[in-house]
Each structure stands twice: as structure tokens, then as C-alpha cells.
Amino acid sequence: MYGVKRDFFELHASKVTYIRREFPILGENICREGLPKFLFAVPSVVKPQAAQDRLEIRQTWASSFYGSNWLQADGIRIAFFFGSENLSSGELESLRNESGVYGDIVVGAFNDTYVNLAYKMAVTISWVADHCSSVDAMVKVDMDTYVNVGLLLNLTDKLPTQEYPNFVFGTIHNDAHPKVLRTGHWGVPKSVYPFDFYPKYIYGHSYVVSGPAVKLLAENFQYFPVIPNEDAFLTGIMAVTLNITRFYHSSFANLLTVDVVDKIERNILTTALVDSEKRRTIWNFMKPSIGFDDSFEDV
């Protein structure tokens, strides 16, 4: 790896990270009796706009996951993840009420901040490993991402999973050698990650983690320090450390993708970064005839 010493990417002999498996809202009914086979894991926050976005997600691309009375009973399900330590009692109660209606809320006992997103995803993956042990795959999706579910499942099904059971799948970072930022939202101190470049990694707005990789990650988070850059940490650093295969496909949108509404409507895109208006526009077009193009190229 360019500019990176390989021995950094080794598990510690003793535990260096504590993953809190405490959940004020456990979401105990999300995974039951060997289901789901695919779980969409969506990190969320407690803000009025985020609550509206969750409702729109339930009503649009994730609507087929829900049955009567918002019960999720199919092989594909969704859960929204939060941390509780910076929530007021009123905010936590609001999430309890939302959980009572939709049954798709999980709240862990950690500080839910942007800089803590990598840790939040480590807790999320650990929850999936503990409570959804039969999943074939977990799909991490950001709130501002629209998912063409049929196309995503079709592409994932074509991956050589027998040969490579431990994998992550998404769109690769544009840079051949992703540079480490030291300041700003994605800033990582040199004392935490001493190199100037990350290993190749997958963009964090949407990626698939195989069931075996979920278990492997959950078992080993405690033996590696959490690097506070979610996608670089999980799909780059931990993938290298644990020898997890990375599959890439151009149908996952990134920040440079243009005409996302048109492309997802024509089944060219698996995921797209959207605002509320685009989410509704895509759904209103897609819902009469949801499907996918069987001729789409394999990875």
C-alpha cells in the first residue's frame, strides 16, 4: 500500500477498544426466526428533518419491507440507529414512541456525534452480529441516499460469495491514494493514524457487508483502535486488517455523479444521493413498475 506500513494493519494482542453492547431501545423484534436475510442499517439523528426523512424512506424505497400496521415480516428489513448519551429525556422518549409505531429503531449507549460515526457503525455492526446472526448481508445506507433495492439485491446475488464469503461491496474512492485530512469533519490526528494516505476504501453513503464479514468485524473491533473516519476505517483499514475482499461497482453513486434521478429511474444506478424532493420524484416514477435490468454487468 502506497505510503503505508503493513504492520500497522494487525490486530492487537489485547483489547484496545470497548464496544458498548448496551441499548436503551434494543429493537428486539427487527430480527427474528432466521429473518431477515438482508438488513438495511441506517444511521440517523434526532432532528425534526431527520424524522421526516425517516418517514419518507419508509414510504418510498423501503416501503415494500413493511406490512400492515408497519410490521416488518419479510426477508428484507430496515433499522435506524442512534446513540443515546447526548439525548434529552424528551428526545429519547420520542424515539421510544417512534419505535412503538414502526418497530425499526435501535438506540445504543454512546455519544452520537459526527466525529463518533465510525464508532457508531462499529456498534451497529456488533448489534447486527448479535441480534441478526442469520443475515446474508447488512447494507449500510445514509439518510440522504435512495436505494434501488431490486438492482442492489440482483448485483449482490451475482458476487462470487462462495469463493469470497467475507466482503464489502460499493463504489471505490475516486483517488488512487486517498489522502488523510487532519482538520475539518473528516480530520484524523496523526497520533491516531500516522500515515498520509488511507488504503483504497468504499464511499460510506452506501455499501454492503456480507454476513460473515459482519461477524468477523464484530469479533475484532475490540482489538483495533477506532479511526474516526467511518468509510476509510471500516471498508479500508479494517478490510485490509481482516483480509475482507472489496468489490466495486460503478452503479453506486458518489458526490460527482450527475443526473441521478434520470439514472436511477433507468436502472443505471443502484444508489443515489438525494434530498427530499428527489426522493419523492424518483419514487413517484419507480413505484408503478419496480424492476431491474437483468443484463446489467457483473462485478
Automatic annotation (TrEMBL):
<dbReference type="InterPro" id="IPR002659">
    <property type="entry name" value="Glyco_trans_31"/>
</dbReference>
<keyword id="KW-0808">Transferase</keyword>
<dbReference type="GO" id="GO:0006493">
    <property type="term" value="P:protein O-linked glycosylation"/>
</dbReference>
<protein>
    <recommendedName>
        <fullName>Hexosyltransferase</fullName>
        <ecNumber>2.4.1.-</ecNumber>
    </recommendedName>
</protein>
<keyword id="KW-0333">Golgi apparatus</keyword>
<dbReference type="Pfam" id="PF01762">
    <property type="entry name" value="Galactosyl_T"/>
</dbReference>
<keyword id="KW-0735">Signal-anchor</keyword>
<comment type="similarity">
    <text>Belongs to the glycosyltransferase 31 family.</text>
</comment>
<dbReference type="GO" id="GO:0000139">
    <property type="term" value="C:Golgi membrane"/>
</dbReference>
<dbReference type="GO" id="GO:0016758">
    <property type="term" value="F:hexosyltransferase activity"/>
</dbReference>
<keyword id="KW-0812">Transmembrane</keyword>
<keyword id="KW-0472">Membrane</keyword>
<keyword id="KW-1133">Transmembrane helix</keyword>
<keyword id="KW-0328">Glycosyltransferase</keyword>
